[in-house]
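To: structure subgroup
Subject: Chain for Friday's discussion

All,

I'm putting the inputs and outputs inline so they're searchable in the archive.
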Amino acid sequence: MYGLVNKAAQDFIIESQGEETWEIIKEKAGVKEEAFVSMQPYPDEITYNIVGAASEHLGLDANDILEGFGVYWIRFTMVEGYAHLLDLAGGTFPEFLNNLNNMHAHIAQSFTELKPPTFYCEEIDSKTFKFEYHSERPGLVRFVVGLLKGLGERFDLKINVEYIGNIDGKENSHEYRVSYE
């Protein structure tokens, strides 16, 4: 993952738990970097280790941390200078979700080693849709739930996300039912 993700994880922990707690988690995770370079790729294990160390140190389920981090990610990217990309992706929640693949294709022009997930949306009714998430990275089911909820905050909507399960038994393909008010 890119340093931007790890920097967001660091900021999420510092903002919610304090600098001292970040230093403890950083040490437990084996993070040697003094600072993450946003546009530099890092091994995925660093991000997973940060989540695991945070879970262990804070006594929280890793999935709860991932979901909270997903919500935080939306706010983080907006203040880190990516609000214009979010704005370009759509003016409404459904429009935004339907443009996620295009947004990631645009981001990949700058982040040349990006391995973005892919998404698929299918409308069930005017306020409900099926949402698919496909990635080569395992274990991010609840991070996606948090992202969807964070987008709900961005669009001032109440979001309900129900995880349906794996698609066709594929470990890294997941289906959600998303509704909003």
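Points worth raising on Friday:
The chain has a mean pLDDT of 95.
The beta strands are 118-125, 128-134, 159-167, 170-180.

D.
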